[in-house]
Amino acid sequence: MKGIVFTEFLELVEDKFGLEMVDNIINASNLDSGGVYTAVGTYSFSEMLQLLEHLSANTGISIDDLLLVYSEHFFSVLKDSYPGLLETYKDPIEMISSIENHIHVEVRKIYPDAELPTFEVVEKTENSLIVIYRSSRAMHHFGLGLMNKTFEHFNSTATIVLEKLKEDGTEVKFLINKD
């Protein structure tokens, strides 16, 4: 997992819960990195999972809800860092449906060894989209939050239903209907 995911996560934790919470979750975790991350480094997903688990235990907020909040923060990072990418699109359905064939291609140019989830478009209309998310990491709520922020970015709303195809969350169907 790329370091930017860790650095931004810890920044969010500090902003929302304070530096002491950052220290608490790092110290409670068994991290090969020692909790020291660079944006361009690559780190084990198990480290992110440990940080999330300890933050959840300390705050009483579920991991899924923490991932939703984090994805909102991460979307603003992407928006500020890569404004041209968002300007390529005029519609949230168009943008979400192009994750695999355009956005991930661009991400791989910056981070060639990034392990990204796959997004298979099953069905697409002007106002709806069915996408299958597959990842060895069950971070589908992070994807859900990014989709929510995508609609918000385009001053639009949608109903997004998440249906787990595998109980562990490594394969999920998103049913998206633009309001």
The helix tally amounts to 8
- Helix percentage: 40-55%
What's the Cα radius of gyration?
Answer: 16 Å
| CATH architecture group name of the largest domain | Alpha-Beta Complex
Let me know the largest β-sheet: 4 strands, antiparallel
Shape: globular
Structural class: alpha+beta
Number of domains: 2
Please identify which CATH superfamily of the largest domain we are dealing with.
H-NOX domain
Number of extended strands:
4
**How do the SSEs run, as a string of H and E?**
HHHHHHHEEHEE
Strand order of the biggest β-sheet: 1-2-4-3
The fraction of residues assigned to DSSP E strands is 15-25%
C-alpha termini separation: 34 Å
Q: Show unreliable segments.
A: none
CATH topology grouping of the largest domain: H-NOX domain
Organism: Algibacter amylolyticus
GO molecular function, one term: heme binding
Protein name: Heme NO-binding domain-containing protein
Domain Heme NO-binding: 2-160
